[in-house]
Amino acid sequence: MPSMTSRKVEQSRRLQKRAESMIPGGVNSPVRAFGSVGGDPPFIVRGKGSHIWDADENEFIDYVGSWGPLILGHAAPDVLDAIVGAACNGTSFGASTPSEADLAELVLAAFPSMQKVRFVSSGTEATMSAIRLARAYTKRKYIVKFEGCYHGHSDSLLVKAGSGVATLGIPGSAGVPEEFTQFTLALPFNDAQAVEYAFQKFKHQIACVIVEPVVGNMGCVPAADDYLVALRMITEREKAVLIFDEVMTGFRVAFGGAQELYGIRPDLTTMGKIIGGGLPVGAYGGSSEIMNLVAPLGPMYQAGTLSGNPLAMAAGCAMVRHLRDHKQEIYSRLDKLSRELVEGVGAAAKEAGVPLCYNRVGSMFTWFFTQGPVTDWDSASKSNTEAFGKFFRGMLDRGVYLPPSQYEAAFLSSTHTEEDVQQTIAAAKLAFAGMKK
Ligand SMILES: *Cc1c(COP(=O)(O)O)cnc(C)c1O
Question: Which of 54, 56, 245, 376 is an active site residue?
Fold first, then answer.
């Protein structure tokens, strides 16, 4: 680990200028921008295991992991082999290939609440399609989502959506007519009473409740005890569809996702990130009864030229197979190392007198620069984002790459080592000391 606090930025700066002249903000997803933390974003040229290297040859311990997919670390050998093997046979056909059912089989075996699944190319498509399907199934218009939960960037879901919009300090998005969000009810997270009230007020009109069962997109915020149980009870009673958006949590907080961890069966599940093995994949699935409404079987239309792409399916299969075959060791080790890291940095903050609290579920976590506890968007937004920015830059200068926003979860991979964790805690001590200056 580089112990000096000045990293070279010449090449990254040049590449950023070049990108900015052609690509808005120089980025193809706004969460990659450094606007809220300041400093020069490193341009990444290579990754291996838990480490990444930038264009100036700086080395970082990576806790972003492509925002969640890379639970096996960068360039995982069996995932790479699968991708190369598939590519040699052609990259896309627009016709069915055997690997689509291979991945379906692996996903359905891990998620017993799903009998059928449809693959798409992003989490955004998965959630957008699941909402459409819930409306088709219930023949109702309203949807319930929660403040600080992000479900991709489709029009009706970009309401109090945490993540990138929260980082930019904007409530939703320009270009979304209010008519498109008039059926979206955004309620506070972890407040079952608010859900009861909404169902009373919009009796027989709410098609679905969509939730991140462990929120990652206002930083990591777990559901309170019995909150998910309450959502299940209310939606069942009201004959509304419960959608677990497990794009981030699927195969992350447990092999079978948050629904396995908490023992709750949602009606529909959306996935992405890990199931693509680092390639663009999303999925939505549920009971055959609901899924049979999807075209060509039913009237709910949804399509995709590159959906079920053979490279993406091969990568996903290799990833999920590896997780399945090493389930015990991987998830217990991830939990142990993550705890050590998160608590170690927490203790360092305490020692340095920096107000900080943390949330963690397995290998997904956030250090919030506030006294806490952080249980919803209101408490998350009390964080001192300026302090976070200083910490972020202090860590980056010491070779630790964190998500460049207070309102994003960080991740560990199975390739992170005890040494990575100790180096990161040591870097945090220095970063906290530097913040007081
Ligand atoms: C990342 C994410 C999405 C969006 O997925 P994309 O592939 O970025 O479109 C949706 N929901 C959750 C919970 C996510 O974390």
Answer: 245
